[in-house]
Amino acid sequence: MKAAVFYGTGDIRIEEVEKPKIKPGFVLVEVKACGICGTDVHIYAGGMGPSSVTPPVILGHEFSGRVVEVGDGVIDIAVGDNVAIDPNIYCGRCHYCREGMEHLCENLRNIGVMIDGGFAQYCLVPQNQAYKMPKDMPYEIGAMVEPVACCLHGTDLAQIKPGDTVAVLGGGAIGLIHAQLAKLSGASAIIISEPSAGRRELAKKLGFDMLVNPLSDDIKVFVKDATGYGADVVIEAAGLAATARQAFDIVKRGGTILQFGVVDERAEIPLKPFDIYQNEIRWIGSFINPHTHARALELLAKGQIEVLPLITDRYSLDNMEEGLKKDVSGNRVKAMVIM
User: Fold this and answer.
1) Which residues are catalytic?
2) Which CATH superfamily is domain 2-144+307-338 in?
């Protein structure tokens, strides 16, 4: 089968590799669509260390496809079913798993990061990681279940309340999913900060009109003028050290900052612990998607979150490396590999 194999920083190769063989408890998925995530981009650029990924490995963790084989012991999934994949596999034995925090598992393994993933024609997946999709759900929407599930976990942590003002830093796919979830949660005002004119235009089409260009506008002044105090919740969705620091300038006293974007693990930002103390700022990290995959699938099946407009760039497996490189136009929102 054909696959995109990651060998190291800036080195991904389209190769013929052996098709996975079915095993008990597993399903073999013919991959139909696989999203290019910010995590994939970080791995490709060398922004995530060897503890996170050990090449050679087939990347791609946001994917959907059709089941073509099922192993012994598999129940509730049959050949021909369409499935969306939860890539995060927990051990169930460690301290965190037994405390109900499986996503912090000491032995966490991720399909498409540590285990061969979806940038391939076929992928072998444990049955517990496969969620059946409605038969009429497009594969591209199925591939977006994973990022929506991750954002949903962040929304849960941020505890957005009806009437809250939410500021989203970054108007890419993740930022626009977060904005939609904030709207569903009852936020009365949603401010999106995004330098790309194309992304701001897309945000407007999705119904968001409080838009800031941080290259020309003072976001601190904009948020203060719009809210009087600052945002109740700030969601960092750009994955940049600069925006991670900027969040502290626009959150209100007693507010919450959700650090969702994947910032280069080598990056640092200056902070004054006294300011966090005196202003009672809740600064929360959000990591992957514990117990939210089924809910995300339900939201997408019911059309309550729009994701197809977010897919601005589509690639074949042969040219998918272009989607891992920096977008010089700045207008790419979501890149998808279509098999």
Assistant:
1) 39, 42
2) Medium-chain alcohol dehydrogenases, catalytic domain (3.90.180.10)
* Pairing, β 334-338 against β 311-315: parallel
φ, ψ dihedrals at 9, nearest 5°? -50, 120
Q: Kindly state the helix (H) or strand (E) to which residue 200 belongs, with its residue range.
A: helix 197-205
Q: For the segment 85-94, what is each residue's pLDDT rounded down to a tens digit?
A: 999 999 999 9
Structure tokens given for 16: 């013929």
Task: Count other Cβ atoms within 10 Å, centred on residue 313.
Answer: 15
Instruction: Please choose, from the candidates 294, 298, 334, the residue with its C-alpha nearest in 3D space to the C-alpha of residue 33.
Output: 334
Partners of residue 76 on adjacent β-strands: none
State the first-to-last Cα distance of the chain, in angstroms, to the nearest integer.
12
What is the C-alpha to C-alpha distance for residues 115 and 108, in angstroms, rounded to an integer? Answer: 11
Domain spanning 149-285, CATH architecture: 3-Layer(aba) Sandwich (3.40)
**Predicted model pTM:** 0.96
pLDDT at 239: 93
The number of beta carbons lying within 10 Å of the beta carbon of residue 119 is 30
**Residues 158-206 pLDDT 10s:** 999 999 999 999 999 999 999 999 999 999 999 999 999 999 999 999 9
